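Structural prep section.
Before we set up the soaks we want a predicted structure of the protein with zinc ion in place, mainly to decide which crystallisation condition to try first. Input record follows.
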Amino acid sequence: VSTSPQRNTPTTQRSAPTQDSVRRQNLGALLRYVHVSGATSRAELTNQLGLNRSTIGALTADLAGAGLIDEGVPQETGRAGRPSLVVRPRSSRVYGYAMSIEVDRLRAARVGLGGKVLDSRELPRPHGTAVHDTVATLAGFVRDMQHAVAAAGPADAVFVGSGIAVSRMMRHADGTVRMLPAGPPLSPDAGLGARLGLDREPVTGNVADLAALAEHTRGAATGLDNVVYLHGDAGISAGIIAGGRRVTGHGGHGGEVGHMVVNPQGRDCGCGSRGCWETEIARSVPLDRDAVLAVVEAAGSDPAARAAVRQAADWLGFGVANLVNVFNPTTVVFGGALRELYLAGAAHVRGRLSTMALPACREHVRLRTPLLGDDAPLVGAAELAFERLLRDPLETADAAA
Ligand SMILES: [Zn+2]
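Run finished without errors. Recording the tokens verbatim:
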């Protein structure tokens, strides 16, 4: 997930293209640093990126020339001497579109470099809406925001990319939930960019993976290399980061932890199997944001609701213990509808963890809720939108201008 800078050490065998690629990588590392960390002094960049002062000066001059950052004198530091210049991402000028297609809603945002939300739109997603039918709604959001930026500026605003978080689940008109068929539900091959009114193809990913990416970049799991993010949205899927890398599997379909079988005698699952983790939890508490909230609230006064929460939290802990044994994460994050269930039944989740997880795996694990809350999938989609720019800042800015 992270890009380390390369030291600019000339060797006799290096030819011009290699120097170019080192420079490109350093430009990307610097821009990524201020994108994630915000305003940063040149002195800190020198330290953090392990490059010398003159190299940092040359890189910031290039990025400023391309209109991606600006530099200024910091606020009063109270220290004597000349203050180090502060480098900031040009959030209002350089932007991307982030979209998320969740089971019960559609969202889109115009996000500035640095992760600043500049504009946003949201609508409920009616039951039975197929993924491809939602493209028209998203295109409307984009058109709206394009008009807004054209009218209000800035005049030199530049669009650099877009990302879409897509839930693998859809809800039928009768309320039942099913998984989308294998294969990318929204394929850029189908001219998706053009259908959305964008002049370049969006990058797509699934909701749990992108929520994990968001929490890893600027949320509850910042700087952590081994993270399991669990997203409840009709079912349960996971975004897994192992050794600092996102784990998505061969076809990008990994992380379907909701279909781990936890009870062979359990109830039939929509996936064709039975006793799947999400199905066993949903027997007590439906994995739906509103439904979870209703049961949790009722548990304050209603013993039956209290028992349902206990049962569901117990099953939740059962699956978490298995995942902790497999991935040995330092942090498990409970997002989407699972957030409320975890908060209401944390003692039961921990109880399962302490009896089922191996001591070596459970000792260092922290259970958390997302710092970005329900925005995590959208924030993750925005990270995808900037991926290309951060890989090759000057080329991408040039092509976009
Ligand atoms: Zn299943």
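Observations: The pocket of zinc ion is lined by residues 259, 269, 271, 273, 276, 279 (CB under 6 Å).
Flagged for discussion at group meeting.
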